[in-house]
Amino acid sequence: MKHFKIKSTLVLVALLGMQACSVFENKEVVDPNSPSVESVLTNANASQLNQLGIGVQSAMRNGFPNLRLVAGSIGREVYNLSSTEVTWVTELLGTTNGGFNNNTGFNASYNDFSQTRRRAEIFQRSATNSTFITEPQKNGIRGFANTIQAWTMLKNINMQYKNGIRISFSDLSAPGDLLKPGPFVTYEAGLTEIKRLLDLGATQLDAAGTIPFAFTMTSGWAGFAIPSDFKKFNRAVAAETALYQKDWTGALTAINSSFLNLTGPLTTGPVFTYSTTSGDLTNASYKIKNDIASPVVAQAKFVTDAEPNDTRVITGPTAKVAKRTSDRSFSGLVGSYDVYMYPSNIAPVSIMRNEELILIYAEAQIQINTPASLALAVTALDAVRTGAGLPKLAVAKPAVIGNQAALITEMLNQRRYSLFYEGHRWFDMRRYDLLSTLPNDLPTSLVYVQLIRPFAEVQWDAKNPQ
């Protein structure tokens, strides 16, 4: 089994002439999405392209832990009851009148995903300018890079929402202009650009043919390691994007070209891998049970609202939480259940899996709202329910069958339990205008609609007025 190696990322950094910087430093205003990029490779050889590709895959992991913890907290899935950082239960939960401080760590995932996006862009440009690989191989890299750029942009735009994101930067072929940012665009325009990149990436992956990628795909991408198979991941991300656009027909079209399998294992899909090998990363979302200093606990209603015998909750192979030996009380909040989704600090983390695709399929069918589509949605929801040890809807909730509103509630509930603490609940409740229904365990709490725009981005614009 091959693991990600951070040394590959370091090679990437060295190749690009980059130096590390923090989004919180302001001695010099630089592009916060790709610090100090001085040059672009004009004729990368095969070995260099391989290192660039592995580096992009490695970098993809960096924003995930922060996104999950921030979105999970605002979405009232979890609480980070760290005794050393009270802002997780004050500022992030809206108990302070001042709102967000844009110079805190809550936007750390924004910087991480943006840097991954820029690295993917540089990888694509390096491949295009290389004379060491064939045109089909170049198309494979272009399709991969555009897919990863779109994936990172989707993460960021859902955290920023109406703040929007940048969809363009200074052209990498003009290194003297690298400090010029593109403008922020609306949420809707951002989604349109994400869809465009995904569709372009799918066309490029088709043009790559059946040859392998011209770089190593790490072990977590088993089953998706050649362009034609990676396209299935591309189409899965396109289907997710279509949900946020409320393009239900588009979601079904995309998902039917993905790795959706209504009767297959729910766990099928690419994963992030980790190891304790020197230079690699461990799984930052792993937590020990009964931690005192910085436990991440489930909001109580995740347990009390669950249907009996749901194996996604406390017992079963996909259990998300574990009962603490003693409650954790901190700053007015009480946690009785630890988030415990991984058995070790090298356990893999799902990027996207069949279970999520089945739920996307179910949602699109519900929204199309014909008798036939509602019946298909029930079949999909039953696949998720039976996978969690629950009876089919005809037995457990016969009244919901054929009822669009009731099926939407059921679908959101299954997403709540299947996709717990994976960065979906907050977005789901927002897009269905249900944020007001999320629990507030502190009387002064409020649920934010979006994060604040990062300080480094504000400063970048201030130094480069449009």
Beta content comes to 5-15%
List unreliable stretches of 5+ residues: 1-40
**Rg, alpha carbons:** 22 Å
The overall strand count is 8
> What shape does the CA trace take?
globular
Helix and strand pattern: HHHEHHEEHHHEEHEEEHHHHHH
Secondary structural class? mainly alpha
Strand count, sense and barrel status of the largest sheet are:
2 strands, antiparallel
> Strands of the biggest beta sheet: in what spatial order?
1-5
Oligomer: single chain
Which whole number gives the mean pLDDT?
A: 89
First-last Cα distance: 48 Å
Q: Helicity range of the residues?
A: 40-55%
Number of separate helices: 15
Explain how this protein is built.
- The chain is 44% helix and 7% strand.
- The protein has 466 residues and is mainly α.
- The protein contains 15 helices and 8 strands.
- The strands form 4 sheets. The chain has a two-stranded antiparallel ribbon with strand order 1-5.
- The protein has helices spanning 6-16, 46-60, 64-74, 108-128, 135-160, 187-207, 227-245, 248-255, 301-304, 354-368, 371-387, 393-396, 404-418, 425-431, 455-463; strands at 78-80, 165-166, 184-185, 271-272, 296-298, 321-330, 333-339, 349-350.
- Helix 5 runs antiparallel to helix 6.
- It is globular, with a radius of gyration of 22 Å.
- Residues 1-40 have low confidence and may be disordered.
- The chain starts with 5 loop residues before the first helix and ends with a helix.
